[in-house]
Amino acid sequence: MTGTLPNESMIAMNETTISRGFRSKRQEQTPKNRLPPGQYVTTDFPVLSAGPTPQIKLGDWTFALQLGASLLGKWNWAEFEALPQTTIKVDIHCVTKWSKLDTNWQGVTFDDLLKAVGLTEPPAPYIMAHCDGGYTTNVPVADLIGDQGMIATRYEGLPIPPAHGGPARLLVPHLYFWKSAKWVRRLRFMEKDQPGFWESFGYHNYGDPWKEQRYDGD
Amino acid sequence: MTENVSDLALEGNAAVSLVQELFACDITVARAQCEACGSIEGVGALRPYAAPMGAVLRCTHCDGVLMRAVHTPHGRWLEMKGARYLRF
Amino acid sequence: MTATETAARPVRRLKWQLAQVREIVVETYRVKSLLLHVANWRGHLSGQHVDIRLTAEDGYQAQRSYSIASPPEDELLTLTVERVENGEVSPYLVDDLRVGDQFDLRGPIGGYFVWTAAMGGPLCLIAGGSGVVPLMAMLRHRERRNGHAPALLLYSSRSPEDVIYRAELDAMARRDSHLRVVNTLTRKQPDGWMGRRGRIDKALLAQECFPPEQSPKIFVCGSTPFVEDVSRFLVELGHDPLTVKTERFGPSGGQAP
After folding, report:
1. Rounded to a whole number, what is the distance in Å from the CA of B6 to chain A's nearest CA?
2. At B85, which helix (H) or strand (E)?
3. What ipTM was assigned to the predicted interfaces of this complex?
4. What is the CATH number of domain C17-109?
5. Where are the domains of chain A?
6. Is residue B4 part of a domain?
7. Do the Cβ atoms of A16 and C55 come within 8 Å?
């Protein structure tokens, strides 16, 4: 420490500096019962990706349900669009603490996918979502059935932009948004749970925002 | 760590900072060889992703992941299996 | 290793230091420079950046990184900040901050995107929008060192009102026959504008940049799409990718900020 400005040096070493007049804009007008702990509301839609945005041609796109080595079902874009469509309005919560309320999505629910391949029961308790670019995330099937999960193709009435996961992304809004995997191509049923990209590397395996399950160890 | 990526910030460096925190030497001038394609690049030149969740540093030739880092309240994680070596 | 890179150096564990605002300079309608006194500042190199941390009275914190705009020769540390719509930190720094205010700061950070006069030239600086900030630190350092190494700043802005450091750059270029500043305006040009229009493309780079045979030190800074396009063009024009150093601002998911 220098001798000239002892107070400044001590502050630097021991305390956090309070900045006059700074406050979180996002604490304003927050409907508290809709926000999980530690979250703030944002009106924009931040983009976070683990890799470059894949440029996918709809003509090449397919989506599949897989169990072991076998395909339970596979659709091209036209076939997928012909499946029953559901529209939902949900709040979404990112583990980086922003939440976005009343977002509108359209797509095919997990329940309708099972029906489409002739299943009345899910064939295994877990799925791993596989995506263009190599991203993966694991979700219990119990968190997808009963209208809890869908493969979304529209956001706010328009095709999902590539940076936000278009042409299709998994949507599981009651879990942290890293589980709503962008550029999803395949759901692979698993007998045993296995961790995906973030779950195997510091983040929580399940990710319930209401229990603030952000990290492995929470 | 940035909290809102829509704010203009050096996101590339936010990602690199997460990795840098774990090294005693300046990692941005270290060279890394990509395990997937063999190309050698300066770590400072790798394409950074995923801040603020973590750092994912990818090869500029093949997009393979060379390094990943995450900083959580329970500890810090570093994975470098995508890099055959780092040379300082 | 190339001559522009430094050998492995140990990195000091950075601590947060107190930064106090000594002066505020209005650069454009949404850009201000903050001149800071930092308690135990040990110096920096042009191109490096700092982390700043703002803490509210209720303990809420936000942290951001900003490039250092001042050269190492300056007494005070300068950060140049652009106000981003719906941003959390930049509106505070540009609209609310006053002389005498303070916040936490740590740095300098980064050894890769750095230029010192000792590295020599020719120096080729390519800026998109507020990406000009770390490149300005390099030009200011070059001028303080009476550098004669040929230098070019190729600077893309949306409109004349968005050109940061405009007067200073004009004056620098007038004083120094070895420095060229080429502006291009992408969205709006004033009446009678005889300069370049539109984005920086391969043709403009071919025309203005030092050719690969001269082994220029190249620094590109701006949004991710800007940096990736410009780097690709430069490599296509024959520049060794290892001589093209890049710094990206903003989200890296492919969307321009």
Report:
1. 6
2. strand B83-87
3. 0.86
4. 2.40.30.10
5. 66-218
6. no
7. yes
Residue in chain A nearest B5 by alpha carbon: A46
C220 vs chain A: nearest CA distance in angstroms? 19
The angle, 0 to 180 degrees and rounded to 10, between the axes of the packed helices C132-144 and C166-175 is 30
Chains that touch A (3 or more CB pairs under 8 A): B, C
Give the rounded percent of residues in chain C with a pLDDT score beyond 70.
92
Contact: C65, B17; criterion CB under 8 Å? yes
Answer whether residue C150 shows pLDDT above 70. Answer: yes
- Chain B residues with CB under 8 Å of A42 CB are 4
Nearest residue in B to C60, CA atom: B3
- Which numeric CATH code is attached to A66-218? 3.90.420.10
Q: Is residue B2 part of a domain?
A: no
The pTM score is 0.74
| Inter-chain residue contact C253 with A53, CB threshold 8 Å | yes
Query: At a CB cut-off of 8 Å and minimum separation 6, what does B85 contact?
Result: B32, B33
Identity of the residue in A52, A96, A217 whose CB atom sits nearest the CB atom of B53: A96
CATH architecture of C117-249: 3-Layer(aba) Sandwich (3.40)
User: Looking at the predicted structure, is the pLDDT value of residue A183 above 70?
Assistant: yes
Q: Which chain B residue shows the shortest CA-CA distance from C222?
A: B10
Nearest chain A residue (CA) to B76: A202
Q: What is the pLDDT of residues A97-114, one digit of tens each?
A: 889 999 999 999 999 999
